[in-house]
Amino acid sequence: MNIGASLAPRWQHVHADWWQDDRGNDIHRVDIDDESLYHCHLTGSPLPWNAVATSLDEAMAVVDERPNGQPGTGPD
Predict the structure, then answer these.
(1) How far apart are CA 21 and CA 19, in angstroms?
(2) CA distances (Å), 34 to each of 30, 51, 53, in order?
(3) Which whole number is the average pLDDT over 45-70?
(4) How far is Cα 38 from Cα 51, in angstroms, rounded to an integer?
(5) What does the alpha-carbon distance between residue 5 and residue 57 come to, in Å, rounded to a whole number?
(6) What highest taxon heads this organism's lineage (predicted)?
(7) 33, 64 from 60: Cα distances, Å
(8) I want to staple 7 with a disulfide (CB 3.0 to 4.6 A). Which of 11, 21, 43, 76 is the partner?
(9) Cα angle at 16 between 35 and 5, to 5 degrees?
(10) Which uninterrupted H or E stretch holds 30?
(11) Max Cα-Cα span within the chain
């Protein structure tokens, strides 16, 4: 499996379709037909996911632009 992204030290590849950073934010890959979507869940959010991306790189960037991974707080 080539995920197309080298993981930053703050991220770990927990399972085949699951990544988590050192703040507890999660990214889950969901394969539908021939397309992969990356659902981002921010720590402390009551929502099942806070954003959807089309690549792991994009998903990590979405999570990383939130200060402390808090939902709805905007970029650093």
Answers:
(1) 7
(2) 10, 20, 15
(3) 88
(4) 8
(5) 6
(6) Bacteria
(7) 23, 6
(8) 11
(9) 70
(10) strand 26-32
(11) 35
List the alpha helices (DSSP H) in the chain. 56-64
**Cα–Cα distance list, 10 to 20, 25, 29, 64, 74 (Å):** 8, 11, 18, 10, 20
pTM above 0.90, yes or no: no
Reply yes or no on whether the pLDDT at 54 is more than 70.
yes
Q: Within a 13 Å sphere around the CA of 24, how many CA atoms are in the beta-carbon half?
A: 7
CB count, 10 Å around CB of 4? Answer: 8
Count CB-CB contacts under 10 A for residue 70: 15
